[in-house]
Amino acid sequence: MMGRIESVFAKKGKTAFIGFTVAGDPDKEISVRIAKALIDGGTDILEFGVPFSDPVADGPTIQRADDRALAAGTTPDTIFAIVREVRAYSEVPIVFLTYYNTIYRRGIDRFYREAHDAGVDGILVADMPVEESEEVVEIAQKYGIDPIFLVTQTTSDKRMDTIVRHTRGYLYLVAVLGVTGARKTVAPEALALLHRVRKHTDLPLAIGFGISTPEHVKTCRDAGAEGVIVGSAIVDIVGKNLHDPAMMEKELRRYVSEMKNAAGQ
């Protein structure tokens, strides 16, 4: 049976839109409304950031969202409850982007079991080197959760082969050196990375970090990316409309729809 993530990428000729939001930002209720707005706008895969006190891969926009979520009292229990609500609303694939400490403190087996039971399809552990991932990957596969890994411009060909062997679902290609945040253009180095990784795998390739405009989506699509991942631009819309959730939802739906149109869908 084909999994939800695999089903998205089975639609040939389409570039999937992967929308990121921080779970629990700015609180549980509005976080669920944000997720539903992203889905209603056409998001193909929903990526929840698990808020963390020291998110080393993230820029200021997402750091502020993490702070808001933690200040609202967001815990793993809160996040699994959010996922269950979203799963009851939609069959869209749900992916976590998290840090290892959160998983370790919960207990690896327990975290993945609860994620599976809530309806999570994939988990990317941002600070877990592939060389230290054997136990986590084994448990992820035990619960039918795709282990997703990052590939960057500095990843060697040898290490890339190791990452590919451990990855299911899709590979997350980091478009820029540095942290998350919207950029003006898609760097030529990102497209060069896409072409280099393609020589190593037939896995779907999704480009993230700095993707924020329809022009960025078109550039990635034309280069052959199967997916684009957008986080900071979405979280910016949330941050600018904290006192008007209805406007926030409207803006999110509009933004995702525009980005989807650029992806040719």
Q: How would you portray this structure in words?
A:
- The chain has 265 residues and is an alpha/beta fold.
- It has one domain (15-257): TIM Barrel (Alpha-Beta Barrel), CATH 3.20.20.70.
- The protein has helices spanning 4-9, 28-41, 60-71, 76-89, 100-106, 108-118, 134-142, 157-166, 188-198, 214-223, 232-240, 245-262, and strands at residues 16-22, 45-49, 94-98, 122-125, 146-148, 150-151, 171-174, 205-208, 227-230.
- A 9-stranded parallel beta sheet has the order 5-4-3-2-1-9-8-7-6.
- Helix 7 links the parallel strand 4 (122-125) and strand 5.
- The longest helix is centred in the C-terminal third of the chain and has 18 residues, at 245-262.
List keywords for this structure.
single chain, 265 residues, alpha/beta, TIM Barrel, 9-stranded parallel beta sheet, 12 helices, 9 strands, globular
What is the terminal-to-terminal distance?
25 Å
For the biggest sheet, the summary is: 9 strands, parallel
CATH class: Alpha Beta
**Fraction of residues in H or I helices:** 40-55%
> How many domains comprise the coordinates?
1
Task: Summarize this structure briefly.
With 265 residues, the protein is of the alpha/beta class. The protein is built from twelve helices and nine strands.
